[in-house]
Amino acid sequence: PAQDMIQIEGEAIEPGTRLQVYDMVGRIVNTMETHYQNHRITLYPHLSNGVYILKIMAGDKEYAYRIVIAK
């Protein structure tokens, strides 16, 4: 489980890659864009413990990952 931040790495992560975090109801709770190839995401204090979906949009590809926050 993540507490304060998560590290995103991979060939698909390049400057300009868009990241969105969704809650389990489907609402977007955080949106950001990468500025570096390997990106560190700070999980904002307003995110409660629980399960979220991280969506990564890189060019014409999309990836979705489940993340668990346990502070």
Element-by-element helix/strand order: EEEEEE
Question: What characteristic shape results from the CA principal axes?
Answer: globular
Give the amount of beta strand, in percent. over 45%
Spans of at least 5 consecutive residues whose pLDDT stays below 50 are: none
Largest sheet: 4 strands, antiparallel
Tally of helical runs: 0
Rg over C-alpha atoms, rounded to the nearest angstrom:
12 Å
Work out the helicity level: under 10%
Note the gap between the termini. Answer: 9 Å
**Structural class by helix and strand composition:** mainly beta
Average pLDDT score: 82
Strand order of the largest sheet: 3-2-5-6
Q: Tell me how many strands there are.
A: 6
Short description:
The protein contains no helices and six strands. It has strands spanning 5-8, 18-22, 28-33, 39-42, 50-58, 61-69. The chain is globular, with a radius of gyration of 12 Å.
